[in-house]
Amino acid sequence: MNKETIHSTSQIGKSKSAIFKMWVRKTFIIEKLNNKFGYLFFATLFTAITFGIANNGVAFGILMLMPAIVLPAIYAFVTYPRIGITVFLTLAYFIMLIARIGVNFPLGTLMDGMEALFLLGLFIQQKKKKDWSTLKGPITTWILIWMIFNFLEVANPTTEARGAWVYTVRSVAVVMVTYFIFLFNIRTIQFVRFIIKLWLSLSFIGAAYAFKQEHFGFFPFEEAYLHSDPGIALLLFIGGTWRKFSIFNDPVVFAYIMAVSTLLCVGLLTGPFKKWKKAVLWFLIFSFMLNMLYSGTRGAFVLVPAGMILYAILKYNKNILIIAIIGAVSFIGIINVPTSNQTLYRFQTAFKPNDDLSYKVRKINQKRIQPYILSHPMGGGLGSTGEWGKRFAPGSFLSSFPPDSGYVRVAVECGWLGLLILCIFMFTVLKTGINSYYKIRDPELKSYCLAMVLVIFAFHIGNFPQEALVQFPSNVYFYLGIALIGVTSRLDNEQNKIKDATK
Known about the structure:
Layout: H1 3-30, H2 36-56, H3 58-79, H4 81-101, H5 107-128, H6 138-152, H7 164-172, H8 177-185, H9 189-216, H10 220-226, H11 230-236, E1 237-238, E2 241-242, H12 251-268, H13 275-293, H14 298-301, H15 303-314, H16 318-336, H17 342-349, H18 357-375, H19 386-392, H20 406-439, H21 443-462, H22 474-502
Antiparallel strand pairs: 1-2
């Protein structure tokens, strides 16, 4: 074959390739399958699905249609992170309700997959325009240190429940990835507003659902759950009434969400919003606090007063001082007034821990475990206590220890070194948030920053009496709050540069 023949063959090949590319572009992109090929394609596809359903049942049809749902969803999550973030934040609220209804699907794995897609999108964006400055800062540094420490726990030589690490690290360290996703992709004040509205709307749905449980009873699937295990009744049936858990995993998560949502509204009340919007915020505060009482979670009752103390310090002035004194006197009266109401009585006992037998038992347990913590700088390994410890290391010393506290669990499983890192991390977040609050000029962004500081502070306080940072949606919204501290500061700096440049 001579050179002219080879060249001619090559040209024909290129010509066919170009024609094929033009056909694909015209058929799929320009005409969007609204043509003869598209009609034939869909007719063949749906005929095949029809025969498949007839022979194999509805499950076959659902399986065949899954790509039509999954592939666009994956594309949207990677290309349009705002859509993904909205879906992710919404699903974090409803994931436990969906599971309780009886949907047999690995929802936790789904959330992990969404986080992986967010990361993929982040790296694709960085490949186009490399700029990691958005993610820099002291908070990022300590989050990375805490994440690395938790991953290193897999090699902890003292652990007896190594298999539990795989399950525990997801809720402790992997979820921290969301901080970077939120910090990088929330870039406008309009999106911040949308997220705040979504947050409050979802919390109100949770409050309304609990109101329904309290005054109209449980749904049949909830009744089935409550009576599925005698241990559930021991935890949730107190004083002749059931503790309410709303759409969440348990009353603790529900109560904490109501408490932090209340403080979110308190922070927003300082913003330059219209009167009707502030009236809505006051209504939400009343709704959140009322329904929080139905949970019977004493640890959560302390969070709002604690958050208000920080609020009074940060917003210190004569009017705030007067309001704080009036509020303190009223509060003292509420916790000391004689009552036969079980909900109010349980609220009062939250502020008298020395009279509570369960609190005394916790103090004894914590005292008993202190020598172990001091002698194990990396602790006993992630998942070595509680239910995971019983599953992966039955009969071990730590498997029988009930942590009953987020910080105690960290001290036991990650040692005094892990507890030190976590405390420094928390301090860095609050310090950065308070400094940002005083530096931000824009009053709207200032109110958002204050709200996030109050939310993070409440989670921080709440992590001592209970485990506040390991279950949906608390774990996701905790890192959302941290990210919004950085976002509000960044947006304010951008606005100030523009204003200064136009002067």
